Amino acid sequence: MTIELGREPADINDPSLRARAVAAAKGAAPFDVLITGGKLVDLVTGRSRDADIGLVGGLIASVHAPASRSDAVEIIDARGTFVTPGLIDTHMHIESSMVTPAEYTAAVLPRGITTIVWDPHEFANVYGLDGVRWAIEASYALPLRMILLAPSCVPSAPGLEAGGADFDASVIAAMLRMPELGGVAEVMNMRGVIDGDPRITAIVNAGLASGKLVCGHARGLEGADLNAFMVAGVTSDHELTSGADLLQKLDAGMTIELRGSHDHLLQEFVEALNGIGHMPPTLTLCTDDVFPDELYRDGGLDDVVRRLVRYGMKPEWALSAATFNAAQRLQRSDLGLIAAGRRADMVLFEDLEDFKARTVIANGRTVAQDGKLTVTVDPLDATPLADSVKLSPLTEDDFKVPSEGSRVRVALIDQPRFTRWDEAEAEVETGFVVPPPGSTLIAVAHRHGKADPRPRIGFLKGWGEWRGAFCTTVSHDSHNLTLFGGNATDMAVAANAVIAAGGGMAVVKDGHIEAILPLPLSGLVTEASLQDTASGFHNIRKAMEKIVDWQPPYLVFKACFGATLACNSGPHQTDRGIADVMTGEVLESPVLEIL
Fold first, then answer.
1. 502-556 per-position pLDDT tens digit
2. What mean pLDDT is predicted for residues 322-332?
3. Which one, 73, 325, 410, 492, has least CB within 10 Å?
4. What is the value of pTM for the model shown?
5. For position 3, what pLDDT does the model report?
6. Predicted local distance difference test score (pLDDT) of residue 6
7. What are the CA-CA distances from residue 529 to residues 72, 137, 165, 336 (Å)?
8. From the CB of residue 58, how many other CB atoms can be counted at a distance below 10 Å?
């Protein structure tokens, strides 16, 4: 792969820059920046030591004894801080935070995250290649390094759902020729890879041919299936389900992107890793999905590091996973270590418990100080992402299941997250099925203007008693208009509120809109500030508590966004009907038999 000089990572190999750095390292010229008095966290030896660091442009020119040099254009006093490499988030989706890339940058860069690996999978499912191109362009002017990946599963379950685009291997190969893209994003069609499905196999092979990363999504895989998934060419996983699952995948040689979005598993992961006695070099950290209120309150990857340490992991281990290990995974030898010749990305943390960043340096310049950006962040015009909800207003009858007869047998989608098939008998009144006792209505309507937009209705079991309705256009992964509710009347009100807003979320109870969060850009994102978006999302959360009682860890608000994820095993409602990726079956109606 040829990399242009001037483009990362080749930019720091500019001969004049290297020559200046060599001169400064020898003492024949001053540093541009000298960081003095800090304690360097060495992520090779696992020790911390006193050291000063000299920078020339975007390069670390020297790591040397404290107070042995004072010749520099600028001196940064690092006394009382721990100096570490910039944090690297190895798998994430900006869209999950519901703000623009510029707003996301302003949120995480001051916290010490200097590099993210962004899968713009959500934009791609709504706008196809135009969505990916917009993401690339949005990243150009931002001081946060964004390594983008080519979304591999658009849609996640071809034939079982319809989204806004369809990426086959030829599209993936074309994207991988773009220098901005670092590889193939999470391959979610696990069964297709294992069984040799031609479409997903060709996509993986396109990634292998490019010489770039091929990242994975290996939920529940073990034994022969895990071996088959890996030998096909997929090399990473973030979908861990237990400490035993983590150890099995480490034993198999898979790179782990240990994610912070499933906090209930982190303690178990820490205990498993502590049992090993060292931090495996193939373990990295990621956020995957961070909602806006969590991002505003707690941060991004810094929060993952902080929680791991709180749960008993050594700070040096967590930092190694978030820096050096991540850089090795990304094949970026310029990142992840504070050493002469590396890129000058670093953080001055006040301690190794709260990980509050005093100063953040990216490419040799100070970009944040005391939690605030010191550089300008310019957002890209988001007009191309508008008008993505191509639906007319819906009626109450659109959220009812028509049927003949007076009694029917219907299919149920049993339990959140790990779904399975079930059945029940139901009454039919005035030509519509009366939802079985204890069931929740789910409806999905195609919103991209590429398929039949009529809502497809299903019945959920194990989702509690709903006293209203929730509508969202954030619905993994095709992001069609999705509703949950206890009655068709509230569902229609919620749907029409979101359609009128151009996308977003709404909570309705007794015909009244309790809360609404407009997301008019792709139905996923807003140009509002993170603070305002966090407040709006918090209001949605609180309103949801009025209409349903959650039962963690699986029956939680977040489960609503993944309930349509048709690539996962078991039945899932999509815009085509109730789909099962294991059988390839799609039921347009939940009615199985007229009794």
1. 999 999 999 999 999 999 999 999 999 999 999 999 999 999 999 999 999 889 9
2. 98
3. 73
4. 0.96
5. 43
6. 67
7. 38, 20, 29, 31
8. 22
Cα first-last separation, the chain? 64
Q: What are phi and psi of 209, to 5 degrees?
A: -65, -30
Query: Tokens 């659109």 map to which residue?
Result: 398
Contacts of 255 (CB under 8 A, 6+ apart): 235, 236, 237, 282, 283, 284, 329
pLDDT at 141: 87
Instruction: Identify the DSSP state of 589.
Output: S
- CA–CA distance, 140 with 567 (Å, rounded to integer): 32
Residue pair 249/228 in contact by the 8 Å Cβ criterion: no
| Token digits of residue 99 | 């703000």
Residue 402: strand pairing partners? 432
- Model confidence at 7, pLDDT cuts 50, 70, 90, reads confident
> DSSP characters for 180-231?
TEEEEEEE--HHHHHHT-HHHHHHHHHHHHHTSEEEE--TT--HHHHHHHHH
Share of the chain above pLDDT 70, in %: 99
Token output for 228: 């088959």
How far is Cα 503 from Cα 473, in angstroms, rounded to an integer?
Answer: 6
Each residue's pLDDT tens digit, 137-158: 999 989 999 999 999 999 988 9
- Say which residues have a Cβ less than 8 Å from residue 479's Cβ, sequence separation at least 6: 122, 125, 126, 163, 164, 447, 473, 522, 523, 524
Pairing of strands 512-518, 504-509: antiparallel
Residue with tokens 């309507």: 445
- CA distances for 20 relative to 58, 60, 325, 338, angstroms: 11, 11, 29, 18
Return left, alpha or beta for 233; rule: phi > 0 is left, psi -120 to 50 is alpha, else beta.
Answer: left
* Burial of 593 (C-beta count, 10 Å sphere; 0-12/13-18/19+): exposed
Structure tokens at 42: 């060495």
pLDDT tens by residue, 61-110: 999 999 999 999 999 999 999 999 999 999 999 999 999 999 999 999 99
Q: Which pairing describes strands 456-461 and 407-414: parallel, antiparallel, or unpaired? A: parallel
CB 102 within 8 A of CB 138: yes
Q: How is residue 161 annotated by DSSP?
A: B
- Region 250-274: mean pLDDT is 97
